[in-house]
């Protein structure tokens, strides 16, 4: 009999968000996504439109889309 070891760790996902143009935009998107359960860090970069999210488990794209919508922007998908 072999024992299975759970080797799961943090999951990093990069999303593309359209419409961000400044630091305030980055903060709004980061703030909304940070409220999703399991998210430990969010880094949004307006210049590239990329939002890097570190979470305990893979995120549901619809949860991220809802958070980005709440911030007033549009989720274009995964980078």
From TrEMBL:
What residues does the HMA domain cover?
Answer: 11-76
InterPro entries in the record: HMA_dom, HMA_dom_sf
Q: What Pfam families does this protein's entry cite?
A: HMA
Q: Which PROSITE patterns match?
A: HMA_2
The positions making up the signal sequence are: none
UniProt name for this protein: Heavy-metal-associated domain-containing protein
């Amino acid at each position: 009999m072999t024992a299975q070891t759970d080797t799961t760790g943090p999951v990093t996902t990069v999303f593309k968000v359209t419409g961000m143009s400044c630091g305030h935009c980055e903060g709004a998107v980061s703030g909304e996504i940070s409220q999703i359960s399991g998210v430990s860090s969010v880094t949004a970069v307006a210049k590239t439109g990329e939002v890097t999210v570190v979470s305990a488990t893979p995120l549901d794209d619809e949860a991220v889309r809802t958070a980005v919508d709440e911030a007033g922007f549009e989720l274009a998908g995964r980078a």
